[in-house]
Amino acid sequence: MDTFHERAALRARLQEARARGRRIGLLPTMGNLHSGHIALLEDLRRVCDISICSIFVNPTQFGAGEDFERYPRTLPQDQERLSAAGCDLLFAPSIVEMYPHGLTTLTTVTVQGLQDGLCGAHRPGHFQGVASVVSKLFNIVQPDVAIFGEKDYQQLAVLRRMTLDLDFPVQILAGATRRDADGLALSSRNQYLRPDERQRAPMLYRTLQQMRDAILSGIDDYRMLESSATGLLEKSGFHTDYFSVVDADSLQPAGAQTRRLTLLVAARLGETRLIDNISLDLAAPTAT
Ligand code: PAF
Questions:
Q1: What distance in angstroms lies between residue 130's CA and the mean position of ligand 1's atoms?
Q2: Domains of the chain, each with CATH number or no CATH
Q3: What is the pTM of this model?
Q4: Pocket, ligand 1, Cβ cutoff 6 A
Q5: Averaged pLDDT, 38-44
């Protein structure tokens, strides 16, 4: 696997591949790769000829007081993992390479509406930072296909919509959330958890499952379910940013008529903010 730190060299290499008719697939990451990322790479490699992973801890998507400084940076280990998993190219630019004119760029990408609620309400500017850096990555790499994990459900919705609205000729794939045996969704941030917090963390997914089962049993008072889920989590020591039952596409609060639902949660255990979600389709035969 070849590593590129500069846009120009990467572009030259990709141009060659494109000229030979190769289908290029991009996995954007912030590094500190775990088996969830490797599973996304495997999904991606099934649908492209040349796989490229980007590793860039993007400062513009972190708010003041968030974990930008302490976000784990593990490039040599990441390179080994990617290489062993058959990744073809790695793009690992510096901050100056990505933002040569400084971090306060005059041009940003905003996905109105979709970016404002849920995590957006608790992390102002986060999705603008994500949409802007992913636009830059799309322009640098010009992939045919890009993959993002479903764990970051709102991010996926924002990026799908951005791709549609700005006519990026990129197919967006969603990779299923990978979990530890006890149900905790894999995330680079799990390593911040203290041992007692790690033991309690699977409660997040269990609560989502309980609420999903309640919905499947016919309960459609979603505001009541949201507050009962929040109560359960608070009792287990979480500080809940939100637990929301929303329309799977618009991310607006679901009502009794909504058929495709997503249950989304963001909660903090100590210093660590965890997110997770479950989707369900009430119109699907298995849901009755
Ligand atoms: O999901 C992430 O790791 C990041 O938000 C992304 C998509 C790589 C953009 O920096």
A1: 6
A2: 2-175 (3.40.50.620), 188-279 (3.30.1300.10)
A3: 0.96
A4: 28-30, 58, 61, 130, 133-134, 152, 155
A5: 98
